[in-house]
Each structure stands twice: as C-alpha cells, then as structure tokens.
C-alpha cells in the first residue's frame, strides 16, 4: 500500500459518517482499491462533488470545510505525475526543480490528461525548487489567463518576469520568500484584473512599481511584512474596485495614497498597526461601500475622515484604541447600514453622534468603557435592528432610550453594572427577539418589566444576583423560546412563574440554590424541550413534578443533592432522549425509578455513592441505547441488574469497585455491541460472565487486576474485534488465550509487565492488524519476539527496555504501516534494521540512545512519510538531512 493510499483511507474514513459525501464513498473505495489510479469517471464524480460543495458553501460548518479541503488534498495526492490537469481548467505542478522539468511536466499532463488548448487556462506551481522567475519560463504559455505560485523559493521578481503572459487576468504569489520586486517586474500585464500577493517578505511598495497594472480591479496584498507604501504607488489603479491590505505592519497611510482609486468599493486595512489617519485619507472615494479599519491602533477619528463616503454601508472600527469620537464623525454617512465600534476605549458618546445615519440597522459599542448613555443616543434611528452595548460600565438605562427604535430585534446589554430591571426600560419594543442581560448585577426585576416584549424569543439573565423571582416577572413573554437563568442565587421557582410562557422550549437554571421541585413547578410549561437544573441543591423531587413535561427531550440534574431515586420519580418525561444525573450523592436507586422514561436513549448516572444495582434498577428504559455508570461504589454486577435493556448497545461501567460479576449478568443485553469495564477491581474473568453477548465487538477490561485468562474465556464473544487488556497483571501470556476470537483485529496489552510472547499466541487471528505492547519489558527485538501474523499494520512498543533490533525482527510484518519504538534504549539503527517494510508510513524512534546513524538508513523504505528522531544522540547535520527527506506534510491551499 502506498502513502497516498493511506491518505485516501484516512480521508474516506473521515467522511464516512458525513451526509455530505455519502454518495462519494464509492469514489474513495475505488481510489483505494485500484492502486491509486484515477479513472476518467472518478474525475467526473469528484468534479460533481466540488460543484455540490460550492453550491452549499454558505451553510457549511468549519468542520465540513476542513474535511472538504482534506479530501481535495487527498485527491491531488493520488496522482503521481509532477503536473496534473485540474477540473478548474489549470495545470498544477508540484515539486518541480527546474524550468525544464516544469515544461516537461506540463507537456506530459497535456498529453496524458488530453487537455485541449482552450481548456489550458491556468498554470499553478506549488512547493517547487525553482528559485527564479524569468520571461523565458513562460514563453510557451502566453495564452493562459491565470498564474499561481505557492510555497516557492523565489526571493526576487525581476524586470519583465511576466511580459510573455500578455493575456493574464489573475496573478497569485503566496507563501513564499519574495523580499524584492524590481521596478518593471509587472511590465506587459496590461490586461491583469486581479493581483493577489500574500505570505511573502516584502516590506515596501515604492511609487511606480504597479504603473503597468492599469486594468486592475482587485489588488490584494495581505499578511505580508509590509511596513511602507510610497505616495503615488496606487496612482495607476483607475479601475480598482477592491483593495485589500489586511494583516500587514502599516503604521500610517500617505495622505494621497488612495486619491486616484475613485472607483473603489471595498477597502480592507484591518489587522495593521495604523496609529492615525490623515483627515483627508478617503477624500473622493464616493463609491466606497465597505471599509474595514478594525484591529489597528487608532486613537481618534478625525471629524472629516469620512466626509466623502456618502455610499458607505459597512464600517468596522473594532479593536482599536479609540477614546474619543467627534460628534460629526459620521454626519455624512447617510447610507451607512452597519457600524462596529466595539473593543475600544470609548468612555462617552456625543448625544448626536448617530443622528444622521438614519439607515443604520446595526450598531456595536460592545466592550468599551461607557458609563452612561443619553436618552437621545439612538434617537431618530427607525431602522435600527441590532444594538450591542455589552461589556461596558453602564449602571442605568434612561427611560425612552430605545423609544425611536421600534424595529429593534437584538439588544445585548450583558457585562455591565445594571442592578434593576424597571417597567419602563423596554417599553414599546414589540419586535425585540433577542435580549441579553447576562453578567450584570441585577438583583431585582420589577413586575411586568417585559410586558411589551411580545415577540421576544431569547432572554438571558445568567450570572446576575437574582435570589427571588416573582411569579409575574416574565408576564407578557408569550413567544419566549429560551430562558437562561444560570449562575444566580435563585432558591425556589414560583408555581405561576411560567404562566405566560406557553412557547417556552428551553429553560436553563444551572448553578443556582434550588432545593426542591414541587408538583406545580413545571405544571404550566407543556412545550418544554430542554431542562437544565445542574449544580443546584435539589434534594427532593415531589412525585408528579414532571407529569406535564411530555415533550422534554433533554434533562440534566447533574451536581445536585439527591441521595435516593424513588419509584416513578421521573414519570411524565416520556420523550426524554438525553438524561443525566451525574455527580449526586445517590446511595440507592429503587426498582422502577426510571419508569416512564420510555424514549430515553442516553442515560448517565456517574459520580455518586451508589453501591448496588439490584434487579429492575433500569426497568422502563425500553429504548436505552447507551448507559454510563462510572465512578460509583458498585462492587458487584448481579444477574438481573440490567433487566429490561433489550435495546442497549453501549454499556460503560468504568471506574467503579466491581470485583465480581455474576454468571449471566449481561445475558439479556442481546443488542449490546460495546462493553467497557475499565478501571475496576476484577481479578478473574470467567466465560459465563459474557453469556449472551454474541454481538459485542468492543470489550475493554483495562486497568483491573486480572492475572490470567482461560482458553474459553471469550467463547461467548465470537464477533469481538477490539479487546483492551492493558494495565493488568497479564505478564505470563499463554498461546491459547485468543484461539476462539476469529474476528479479533485490535488488541491492547500495554502495561502488563510482559517480557516474552509464546510462538503461537496470535496464530489463530486471521484478521489481526493492531497490537499495542507499550510499557512492557521487552529487551531485544528479533524474529521471535513478536510472533505476529503477516497482516499486522500497527505495532506499538513505546517505553519498553528494547536495546537492540536484529535484522530479521520484522520479516513477518511486510504490511506494517506504523511502528512506534519511542522511549526505548535502542543504540544502533542501520539500513538493515527495517529492511522489507515497504508499506511503512510512520516510524517513531524518539528518545532512544541512537548515535551513529547514516543519513541513508531509511532510504530503502519507499513510502515512509513521517519519522521521529528527537531525543537521541544524532548529530544535527544528520537530523537535518533526514528531516529534509521526510518533511512534514504541507497543506494544500485553495483560493
């Protein structure tokens, strides 16, 4: 198996459970099974996949996007030629080391991939050793429209470098070492529309450098070391609509730098070190729509700075050091829709600061030092839909502050000093949907304070000083969906508190001082879906407390004071799927305590004082899929402990005190596939313990005190694939322990004090591919040390006492992909040590005693990609040579 196949296997595995690529699993498998050959139909499938990705990119999560980038990288890796045609109509070349090899690679790609002339529109060079750019390099590619060079060694762009690329529309130079550009470097690029330059070492742009780029519509030089731009450098950019200079080290802009780019619509100057701006810096930019100045060091906004920006819609001044804003600073921004002044040092807002931006819909003033607001601050702003004032020092809000903001839908007032909510603060805000008051000092809420908020969906009052909630505190909130009251000091919940909250779906009352739940507590909230009651002092729950909560799907009672669970205590919670009662001092669970939880699929009752699981403990949990009973004092599993759990598939009974398991304790768990008994006090494992578990494929018995096994121990586990026996006392391994496990693939035997293995111990394991023997006592590796079958792919021998490896040690491991020998005492490694491991992809040799190592020692491992050698006595010169041979993988960058 080649390195690229391994990458493909990994990528396919990553995507296997993701709906986004379910229909493309066949492509993954075909690439793997056909020796990395990409067939024409595969390219079509992949192109369809990328098209689908582009169609849904707006709603994609970061995790999905990462997976997609990974798959694209894998797709690229399976092609063995230096140059390959991409479906976006470009020939991409990687690791070419000369102009000749570039041209040969392009010609080969044209021939091999049947590239028509009209389809060869772009050339991409990545991770090449070509350290120069000349016109001759491109003499055959004058027709291309796009050129991209990434991760190159080019340090200088000479005069006329691109003069043969007469038709070029887009030029990208990124992640390189360019630190000098000659005066006429861009001569001949008369038709260039987009210039994208990032991740290089350029410190200055002199005047005249870009004079030839008079057709440019986008100039993007981001994340450079750019410190200086000379006056007049952009004078030729008459057609420019987008200017991106983010992520540089600019401290100032020349006064007339932007004077001639009068068609510009977007300017990105964020993430620089700008300290001040000339009052006329943006003079004449009458078409500017978006201006980003966030993450700089600006301390003030001159009152004429934005005077010509009548079309500006988006203004970001976040994360500067602005202390004062002139009252006329925004007076000409009549079309402004969004303004962000958050994360500055503003202490005071002029009363009329926003009076002329009547179209504004969003104002953020979060995380400043504002202590008070004038009643006129937001006056005359009828379109305002979002205000962020969180993270200031505001103690009171004047009556009528939001009187003109009838369209307000989001209001964030968290992290201030507000002490009381009065009846007049939110008057008239009948469109408000989201209100955050978290992290204030609110100790009281006047009755009917929220009466006008008929459209409110989310209310956050967490981390305040509320002790008492009056029954009419939330009157009028008929559309409220989510109520958050975490981290207060609330002691009780009034019976009528939820009378108006008929739409309430989620209530969070974690970290309060609630002592009990009465029958009437939740009587009037029949639409609740989630209840969070963790970290209170609940010691008593009245029978029938949950009788009307038939729609609740998630229920959390973690970290309370319950000592006993009584029969029928949770009746009514018939829709709960996730139920957690972790970290309560529970000593007794009465039979049928979980009666009524017929829909519960996940139950957690960890960290308690429970000593016993009697018969019928879990009766009523007819749909349970996963049960966690961990960190308790349970010392014995009885024959009927798990009665009624016929659908259970995952059982984790770890970190308890179990020393005895009765015969047949699990026999009713006919659907169980995973069982963990990690960290208990088992000293002996008997065959009848596992009766009825013929579907189990995952069994963890690690961290017990087991000293021996019998040949028939696992007779009732014919489908077992993964077995964990680490951290026991199995030092004397017998050759008949695993004879009845025909499907075993993965075995963990670390930390058992093993010194030797019998010759036939693994001979019956036909599917065996993973063996962990870390932290044992092996001293010598030879052909008989690890008597494995030939299909073994992963072998871990970290932290043993291995001193030497004989040349034949791995003769029977030709399919090994990963070998870990870190933290041993190995002194000598030669080219014979790992000879024959032609599929080895990763090799770990950290922290050994290796000293005399030849740079060619690993050259006979054809697909080796990653090697660890730190912590040895190898000379830095040899380490550097080997590191260059096996570099860390470089991510593929997509633009």
Task: Please specify the SSE layout and strand pairing.
Layout: H1 3-15, H2 25-33, H3 40-55, H4 62-77, E1 83-86, E2 90-94, H5 99-112, E3 122-126, E4 146-150, E5 156-157, E6 170-174, E7 180-181, E8 194-198, E9 204-205, E10 218-222, E11 228-229, E12 242-244, E13 266-268, E14 290-292, E15 300-301, E16 314-316, E17 324-325, E18 338-340, E19 362-364, E20 386-388, E21 410-412, E22 420-421, E23 434-436, E24 444-445, E25 458-460, E26 482-484, E27 506-508, E28 516-517, E29 530-532, E30 540-541, E31 554-556, E32 564-565, E33 578-580, E34 588-589, E35 602-604, E36 626-628, E37 636-637, E38 650-652, E39 660-661, E40 674-676, E41 698-700, E42 722-724, E43 746-748, E44 770-772, E45 780-781, E46 794-796, E47 804-805, E48 818-820, E49 842-844, E50 866-868, H6 876-885
Parallel strand pairs: 2-3, 3-4, 4-6, 5-7, 6-8, 8-10, 9-11, 10-12, 12-13, 13-14, 14-16, 15-17, 16-18, 18-19, 19-20, 20-21, 21-23, 22-24, 23-25, 25-26, 26-27, 27-29, 28-30, 29-31, 31-33, 32-34, 33-35, 35-36, 36-38, 37-39, 38-40, 40-41, 41-42, 42-43, 43-44, 44-46, 45-47, 46-48, 48-49, 49-50
Antiparallel strand pairs: 1-2
Shape, principal axes of CA atoms: flat
- Structure classification: mainly beta
CATH topology category name of the domain at 769-895: Leucine-rich repeat, LRR (right-handed beta-alpha superhelix)
CATH superfamily of the domain at 769-895: Ribonuclease Inhibitor
Helix content: under 10%
Radius of gyration using CA atoms only: 34 Å
- Give the class-level CATH name of the domain at 769-895: Alpha Beta
What's the mean pLDDT score?
Answer: 90
Largest sheet: 34 strands, mixed
Instruction: Supply the CATH architecture of the domain at 769-895.
Output: Alpha-Beta Horseshoe
Distance between the termini: 31 Å
Number of helices: 6
Number of extended strands: 50
Low-confidence stretches: 1-80
Share in β-strands: 15-25%
